[in-house]
Design goal:
The protein has 193 residues and is mostly helical. It has twelve helices and no strands. α1 runs antiparallel to α2 and α10 runs antiparallel to α11.
């Protein structure tokens, strides 16, 4: 198995690197396994299964600093699953590093400004963490990057109302009605949001 793992590790193909990583794990060589997974991810950054294997290995080995750095690096890739942000921020919060979790979330949001799914997740995280100003800022951003989605506008209006900003909520809702092709469509969008 050791010879097989070394031969696979010599190949530049991501699939070979992933197999090498698994073989090194079986051989009890987590450092070599992590290196093989990293090489594979360098060539296939959107491979969610590969990312999970590396993250799992680092977690099992208690390599927290590497784990956090790997999460952050993966999250800068445009096609990476936004749910990794939830895992990263949960890890940081579990370590008593809530401020680092908030900073990481904001940093990833800046790196991926057009990722609607990621910014929806940020709204959810900020709301859960009781940071209404940040959640409202993300909702405002969502209405800019995904202006045809009425649920973002309605959520922003609700956030404004929750903060006691009735006039601002009214302005936001009027924007939704005006963005529709006809007034009737605007009311329909508002009702469906």
């Amino acid at each position: 198995l050791a010879q097989f793992a070394r031969e696979l590790a010599a190949s530049p193909e991501p699939g070979s690197q992933q197999l090498a990583g698994r073989a090194f794990e079986e051989l009890g060589q987590p450092t070599a396994a992590a290196e093989a997974y990293r090489r594979a991810l360098a060539r296939a950054p959107a491979d969610a299964q590969l990312a999970e294997r590396l993250l799992g290995l680092l977690s099992r080995e208690g390599r927290t600093a590497e784990l956090i750095a790997t999460y952050e690096r993966l999250l800068t890739e445009p096609r990476t699953e936004p749910r990794l942000l939830t895992a990263l921020t949960a890890l940081l919060r579990d370590l008593g590093r809530a401020d680092d979790a908030i900073a990481a979330a904001a940093r990833i949001g800046r790196v991926r400004p057009g990722d609607v799914a990621l910014h929806r997740l940020l709204v959810e995280l900020y709301t859960r963490w009781e940071l209404p100003e940040r959640a409202r800022a993300e909702l405002e951003w969502l209405t800019r990057i995904d202006p045809n989605e009425p649920s973002h506008v309605l959520a922003l209006a609700e956030a404004e109302l929750a903060e006691g900003h009735e006039a601002q909520a009214s302005i936001v809702l009027r924007r939704l009605r005006r963005s529709a092709a006809t007034p009737a469509l605007g009311h329909l969008q508002l009702g469906q949001a």
